[in-house]
């Protein structure tokens, strides 16, 4: 399990070109925490409280708040993070799944999810509330066991996804809810980005390849 400051350090080094703002960092850390719990692997020790713009780790807020809405800039470090291969693969899988979304989109996602909704302001979002809710979500099918190379991939379901499937039958929802693998999803996402030139449109087109019905 990575310490409070180790995980953001790892993400900033691995995704140095991604222009991660403090708000986006908070949500990436939260989802690593969430899906680690669902996968049965404690990936991050940090706790998250319910704030206005979603789950927040107070220590990370204090560390990066001076950047405000600007991307976090850190100097290269020789600090070695002791991370096993299975944990590193899980973290990379989760962060890569959420990285394409903007900070505002990630914040909006957390507002639609029961652990944030059902937690009193400023209280810690509990382990049990996280497990009860997220283990029932489609993205949880990517874990237990986790194998990003050969298993079907169930993508992150954003707010626009729920609007899209509102009138669908369960069979139609299932048909549009998975890709053959995570690698296949990433390949199609990159192609959609290249075709449209706009990331949000690329995500929309990739998630809904048949178009609105």
**Given the helix and strand composition, which structural class is it?**
mainly alpha
Q: What would you call the shape?
A: globular
User: Rg from C-alpha positions?
Assistant: 17 Å
Mean pLDDT: 84
Largest beta-sheet characterization: 2 strands, antiparallel
User: Unreliable segments (pLDDT under 50, ≥5 consecutive)?
Assistant: 204-213
User: So how many helices?
Assistant: 11
As a percent range, the share of helical residues equals 40-55%
Number of domains: 2
Count all strands and give the number: 2
User: What separation lies between the terminal Cα atoms?
Assistant: 44 Å
Could you tell me the strand content as a percent range?
Answer: under 5%
Strand order of the largest sheet: 1-2
Order of helices and strands: HHEEHHHHHHHHH
Kindly describe this structure.
- The chain is mainly alpha-helical and 213 residues long.
- The chain folds into two domains: 1-141, no CATH class; 147-213, no CATH class.
- The chain contains eleven helices and two strands; from the N terminus they run ααββααααααααα.
- The chain has helices spanning 6-14, 22-39, 58-64, 85-98, 103-111, 114-117, 127-134, 159-164, 170-175, 182-196, 199-207, and strands at 49-51, 54-56.
- A two-stranded antiparallel ribbon has the order 1-2.
- Strand 1 (49-51) and strand 2 form a beta hairpin.
- The protein is globular.
- It starts with 5 loop residues before the first helix and ends in a 6-residue tail after the last helix.
- Residues 204-213 have low confidence and may be disordered.
